[in-house]
Amino acid sequence: MKPESLLFAKTHEWVAVAEEGGQKIATVGLSKFAVEALTDLVFIELPKVGRQVAVGESFCEVESVKAVSDVYAPVAGEVIAANDKLADKLELLSNDPYGEGWVARIKITDETGLKSLMDHAAYQKQCAEESH
Amino acid sequence: MRNTRDTKLLFELSEAGRRAHRLPACDVPERTAKELLPASSLAAAPPALPELSEPQVVRHFANLSQLNMSVDTHFYPLGSCTMKYNPKRNERAARMPGIADVHPYQPESTLQGMLQLLYEMQEYLQEISGLPACSLQPAAGAHGELTALWVAAAYFRDRSEKRTKVLVPDSAHGTNPASASMAGFQTVTVKTLASGAVDMDDFRRLLDDEIAVFMITNPNTVGVFEPNMKAIADAVHARGGLVYLDGANMNAILGIARPGDFGADMQHYNPHKTFSGPHGGGGPGAGPICVAEKLAPYLPTPVVVKVKSLEPRVKSQKDGSTASPALDSPLLTLDYDRPKSIGRVRAFFGNVGVLVRAYCYIRTHGPDGLKRVSENAVLNANYLLSKVKHFLPVPQGDRCMHEFVATAGKLKSEKGVSAMDIAKRLLDYGFHAPTVYFPLSVKESIMIEPTETESKEMLDAFAETLFRVIGEDAELLHEAPHSTAISRPDDVRAARQPMLTYSSKE
Amino acid sequence: MAKVSVGRQTDISTNHASTSIPTSIQLNPTLRSALSTPNRTTMPYLYNTPEDQSAMLSAIGAKSIDELFAMVPAELRLGRALNLPPAMSELELAQHMDGLAIRNEHAGSKICFLGGGSYDHFVPSAVDELAGRGEFYTSYTPYQAEVSQGNLQVVFEYQSLIARLTGMDVSNASLYDGGSATAEAVLMAVSSTNRLGKVVLPTSLHPEYRQTIATYLKDIGVEVATVGTPTGVVKPQDLAAVVDDKTACVVVQQPNFFGCIEDAASLASIAHDAGALVVAAFDPISLGLLKRPGDWGADIAVAEGQSLGTPMQYGGPYLGILACREKLIRRMPGRIAGETVDRRGNRCFALTLQTREQHIRREKATSNVCTNQGLFALRATIYLALLGPQGLKETANLCLQKSRYAAEQLCKSDRFELAFTGPTFKEFVIRDKQNHVEEVIEKALEAGFLAGVPLGKWYPELKDCFLVAVTEKRTKTEIDRLATAL
């Protein structure tokens, strides 16, 4: 996926929304900026499939050697898939953050959360500010 | 120089058929294990332990020991750890058979010397903290925190008060919030200012009737005595909450100020820091706690009390308080009859071996000596601060208690040299590194606690070396240390592909 | 490592509390009062002379030591001397400690048949000699791996030995003691199964471990369900009646508190069938003969490691052993060392998987445990290295043979019988048919024996019983004499 086509949360998660069988499904991952800032990731604790998440709820953790970072749900809904490949190939997060490095898929139950997400240009602006 | 032969892993040194320890022949009529035990419970063979000779074992561990820095061999200014000299007389006392070879379930009549020591220890700790009741049971500082929080939970339960939250400053040691969680409380973090003091606006905003305990470290982790201590304690008490003092930094205030007098309702001690127990490569410690009178009934069982005779047991007072009746020639006993007690926090009495060393330390110093310990700890820290501040900023200002926190933040942004680089390079010069990256509230923090058992010459030498290191080439520092057995382990690899046992890599 | 010249030997290290400042040092009175507390005696572990102090104060820009404490508000100061006994010289302290120690009996003054989780096993001399090296016992947590490779390698070797001893995949660097290690294992089981209903503890588990677990669970709302053991062991059907789909774990002690051998594998499969984990509390010495916890189905294995070269010292400090299956590793409390390579590619050891721990994860950590029992992990490592597989097996066998012999000798008296008939390892429970246990213990004491641990304190139904432990140290003569004395 091209980052330009994605939506981003303030907390550095990206979202791609697609229609599948009349349901809105969000694919969620971590932005390249976030992955680079975390450096040397060593472990990811993936969300359990079936878990209900609210917007802004921590539903996944990524660990570097000496830090743990929460991944927050950018949309509300049910986790319908988690990217098990990450467990063994954590480098997917950095090598292909917007493709094979996706983290989870969420069946959206409440679309209000989508409104507070930003587009790629706005997100890039945020990142530029944070780098200072 | 590293002896690489003898410091191979035990498993690599092993040769089938070697053995270091022979046992006497069996002097009672012997039957096979199969006759005595169910076949289903028996192993086919003993565990695959390495097979070594005694000289081999001795050389292995003697060589390994030489790969460590220690207080006996080096200056060890590890902030927040109080790495003071470990007196040898304390070791001798703790190793006497009448102390070391005492079984925890001996009859009390055979333990009167031990109980006397422990009873006195309870009293000394109460006097030093200004809190009238004591439990010696917790096994470490973090265990003491947890025990005190359980005591608080029991106290509020007894009063039918529902309080769910514990306030913890952001500069606190990680054990504080972790202990709060284990005791079933929710942690609420209070901000601290650059000076290290609690942000009073944030504190007032967060203080409410659901706060059970405010856990405060005072002197705090940057070595500053909390300027609003009294106001904080009064405000917490006015809301019905309790104040817990993390006693990690007691080395600064022995005989100078007492937690019970400045508003704490409970505190733990780290006898392995304040009272010179050797740190043992990471333990053992002990975590005795002292508490206010109203919390005494909830302390763990047993506590040591005085009684007129051991048989029959004198019942403690109905409310379970620890006050003991005045007696002419008292005997000492363990009081288990404490109905409101939280129970046990571990098996057996406590980390007695550590407490014995602390007892010897207190008896060696007496009241004036303990005060002098703190005075010199504070003098040494301020002296070092006065030197270091000229080349590494110390955000908290010109004064500290027993330790201070410098920052390499500017060095990092200007020269790319981090606190870690400095720490590693100091090792090359024969100094253990200060604590780095704690507290988290100061960027690129370097936390220095010289302790009172170092000389002015040592402090001068350390400051000079630190100054020299800061002026060194950045590349040299990034790759430091250069003279140690190993340099900069690959932590990422260790965590990504954990190899935690010898067998796991075969 | 580069050497730095340290300190000097001067007269300031005197031990005498009454010694005052040497008269040759002339200080003006104002400077004197600016310095340390009134009785300006030098203490044995301090370097600073009055000259040092005044030089340091002027470098700081302070007039007095008291000024350095300006940040402690005057109204919060103690303002008097602590009410503690006066200082002692080393000689006085040694005499004082002798005076206390002589009022204790100990395993050297009475023949010790006490057990219940702390044992009078033999400690080979090399354990004390090596663990007594200052480079080990005066060092701290290996935060700087480069100058802690000794400790880190010892921890790695300890973890490896414990894994082999228990048949588990991984071990941590140790916890406080057997009791708190068992409680931590129970918490691990609760969090990894996400079952907050209950944990099941048989009464054959050490009563103080059960009490400790109860304390750990009370404020997080997990129930403790107890299974009775009237025959000295857990009956599988009794366990099956209590374990359900809300059970996080079952704790099985093998050999159990009474010294009896449990049908551990059957108990483990009952727990597993219900989706619960099995926590095994084991006696390290017994594994010279008995199946390892990992071989009978344990998911987490815990133990009091005191038997492995640590003196009894009235109950602590000891060694909490905790090992587990690989899948539980991220729920494991406490430190862990791992093997890695350094910048130059050399094998080395470092603390790892630290994101589980309190200093990083704070309130979300697996446990609040901060330290390990490094010194006792070291002792256990040396002990196991000295014994090797054959030494461990022989030690276990001597315990088994001698305890069985002792049980038979004691039961020759009409007054005594075994409370439980099943097989035992190194401990057994004796019933006094006359129901005067305290009197028996007292009589034995007079004859020079610490004969056993009365059980009435924990088990009202066993108030006529006491627990006897027989280690490899007990001789036939000692056992015969005990039998005669009783």
Please characterize this protein's 3D structure.
The complex is a heterotrimer of chains A (132), B (506) and C (486). By secondary structure, chain A is of the alpha+beta class. Chain A has a single domain, classed as RNA polymerase II/Efflux pump adaptor protein, barrel-sandwich hybrid domain (OB fold (Dihydrolipoamide Acetyltransferase, E2P), Beta Barrel). Chain A has helices spanning 32-38, 85-88, 92-95, 120-130; strands at 7-8, 13-20, 23-30, 41-45, 52-53, 58-64, 68-72, 76-82, 104-110. In chain A, a hairpin with a 2-residue loop joins strand 2 and strand 3 (23-30). The longest helix of chain A has 11 residues, at 120-130. Chain A starts with 6 loop residues before the first strand and ends with a helix. Chain B has two domains: 10-65, no CATH class; 68-85 and 130-296 and 368-506, Aspartate Aminotransferase, domain 2. In chain B, the strands form three sheets. In chain B, strands 1-7-6-5-4-2-3 form a seven-stranded mixed β-sheet, sandwiched between helices. A three-stranded antiparallel β-sheet of chain B has the order 10-12-11. The two termini of chain B are 29 Å apart. Chain C is an alpha/beta fold. At the A-C interface, strand 4 of A face loops of C.
Give me the secondary-structure topology.
The complex is a heterotrimer of chains A (132), B (506) and C (486).
Chain A: E1 7-8, E2 13-20, E3 23-30, H1 32-38, E4 41-45, E5 52-53, E6 58-64, E7 68-72, E8 76-82, H2 85-88, H3 92-95, E9 104-110, H4 120-130
Chain B: H1 10-13, H2 33-36, H3 54-65, H4 88-94, H5 97-100, H6 112-129, E1 133-135, H7 141-158, E2 165-169, H8 175-182, E3 186-190, H9 200-206, E4 211-217, H10 229-238, E5 242-246, E6 266-268, H11 271-274, E7 289-291, E8 303-307, E9 331-335, H12 352-388, E10 404-407, H13 409-415, H14 419-428, E11 435-436, E12 445-448, H15 456-470, H16 474-478, H17 491-496
Parallel strand pairs in B: 2-3, 2-4, 4-5, 5-6
Antiparallel strand pairs in B: 1-7, 6-7, 8-9, 10-12, 11-12
Helix pairs in contact in B: 4-12, 6-12, 7-8, 12-15
Chain C: H1 29-34, H2 50-60, H3 65-68, H4 90-101, E1 111-112, H5 125-131, H6 134-137, H7 149-166, E2 170-171, H8 178-193, E3 198-202, H9 207-218, E4 223-227, H10 236-242, E5 247-254, H11 264-273, E6 277-282, E7 300-304, E8 320-324, E9 337-341, E10 347-351, H12 358-361, H13 374-410, E11 416-418, E12 427-432, H14 437-446, E13 449-450, E14 453-454, E15 465-469, H15 476-485
Parallel strand pairs in C: 1-13, 3-4, 3-5, 5-6, 6-7
Antiparallel strand pairs in C: 2-8, 7-8, 9-10, 11-12, 12-15, 14-15
Helix pairs in contact in C: 5-13, 7-13, 8-9, 13-15
